[in-house]
């Protein structure tokens, strides 16, 4: 199928890896960004590698910018749109209690509503041309809820739910909707996670934030390149019968399997122990029962 592939959030991390990988494989790539300078840098990077790609300015959270950028991308693609890769997103760390209403709205606008609204623009074009692909880059957090990033998890859970519905609705028109669930990779997302935690003011969870910021060097220095995600996105775009979901990374596959197999109490205890929510969580995980220091009497049995 001719036409362009539109990659959102293409100037950094996973989006950059996807845009360059697809361009290297001969796709007509159009990357979106909100920043003119970063767009120029991406084009220059592509040229240094002997590649060609275009960019358009688009703020997914702004209706006018989204529509204007989409129209420009469609024009660059000769009126045809082979695929949309919804990758743009933001992190949101902090407990549900500590994240402000505006911050929660921001992450839902960019991670959930923005990709869905872009898909709404793409679907009529793909229907008229007889098909296409929409790949929504979710996360391990799209299936596994984790303390300290609850609003981020909510945005990705929502994106997966809408993607599932869209997959069933659009199939009859030859449009395949695919979810990609990356684990942890070396991107600016992690710097954003830790920076947001460090900026949270007085909190009942301050000890947890201090613990997580203390392990930042260990986490940030050991994460792999996002290139495997780019390869999986290419597979999702080219497979004759793509799967509904592709998980990427050993950590993602292990965590998703554990979420399916472990009892909720055991999974909760493991996650609580990892982020330092309660020392007793580790005891409960190992012993399978509440520790004396929990201080909360069990509910009476019925």
TrEMBL record:
Protein's UniProt keywords contain Oxidoreductase: yes
GO molecular function: oxidoreductase activity
Residue ranges annotated for the Ketoreductase domain, each copy included: 3-193
Pfam families membership: adh_short
Organism: Marinactinospora rubrisoli
UniProt similarity note: Belongs to the short-chain dehydrogenases/reductases (SDR) family.
Record's keyword terms, sorted: Oxidoreductase
Domain of life: Bacteria
Enzymatic class: oxidoreductase
Record bears the keyword Oxidoreductase: yes
Protein name listed in UniProt: SDR family oxidoreductase
Gene3D superfamilies per the UniProt record, alphabetical: NAD(P)-binding Rossmann-like Domain (3.40.50.720)
EC number: 1.1.-.-
Signal sequence residues: none
